[in-house]
Amino acid sequence: MPVTVKKMLQILQKHYSNITTLQQWQAPMIENQLGVRFSEDYRAYLLNYGEVSFGSHELTGICRSERINVVNVTEEAKKPYGSLLSDCYVIEDTYFDDIYIL
Description:
CATH class: Alpha Beta
CATH superfamily: SMI1/KNR4-like
Number of helices: 4
Helix content: 25-40%
Number of strands: 4
Low-confidence stretches: none
Largest sheet: 2 strands, antiparallel
Radius of gyration: 13 Å
CATH topology: SMI1/KNR4-like
């Protein structure tokens, strides 16, 4: 059974306190900058948590770290792939063989 962002949010609510979260008015600006529309569950994740790291996973989000900031990571991922990723955003960079979770 695939794990959705919504399911991860339910799990993380018990174990995580947020640091930086997205403000509702910021979402359209970031989406416009990336040329994408965030899914409702990813938007909820950004609004509630900002970004999350657990175990060996670091989900992109809204934060100061360029390494896991959704804007920085997505823009870097798009460089070698061009239009192939034009309507995508990166949820996780695995840091293994250029594998991205979109």
